[in-house]
User: Fold histidine kinase from Sulfitobacter brevis.
Amino acid sequence: MKFNLQVIDLSAALNHSIETNQSYADSYSVEIFADSIEPNVKISADPARLDQLMANLLSNAIKFSKEGDKVQIDLTTKTGRAIVAVTDHGRGIPQKDKLRIFERFQQVDSSDKRERGGTGLGLSIAKAIAEAHQAELTVESVLGKGSTFYISFPLIVGS
Ligand SMILES: Nc1ncnc2c1ncn2[C@@H]1O[C@H](COP(=O)(O)OP(=O)(O)OP(=O)(O)O)[C@@H](O)[C@H]1O
Ligand SMILES: [Mg+2]
Assistant:
């Protein structure tokens, strides 16, 4: 994967990614909430790769939600990091699968491919993109209640 890093406004980039995935959310009758995105957060990123990373997290959050559910995107800053959170209220991820899903072709359920499409590559690509940005990609999840995926980027020093 090639990366073309530049200073970008992460807040604006997130709003753009949400717009791009809006029709996919509509097709699942899922509402995306983006009312807690801190403005003017600057990081070093490849805009196309960042969009791909967000699309992977958003598409998962949407397709594992139930009709009428909300997906929430947050952006906060804390001690030199910009933290993006993508939260859904879907089925959640079993504890034993929380690390495995970041590997290639790993899906929690053998029916995931059949029922929701996809090949189990999205999160492995997301992880590779995060790593190229010195960002950490992690998940917290409660089975039956939902999941939050976090990406923690280094803030540009002095910003
Ligand atoms: N938000 C989520 N809620 C519940 N399970 C999830 C969520 N995100 C990922 N998973 C689980 O992790 C698996 C791997 O996710 P990943 O994005 O890598 O693959 P995929 O979505 O199945 O296929 P692809 O991304 O290639 O279209 C999913 O199949 C699903 O079992
Ligand atoms: Mg996926």
Notes: The longest helix spans residues 10-27.
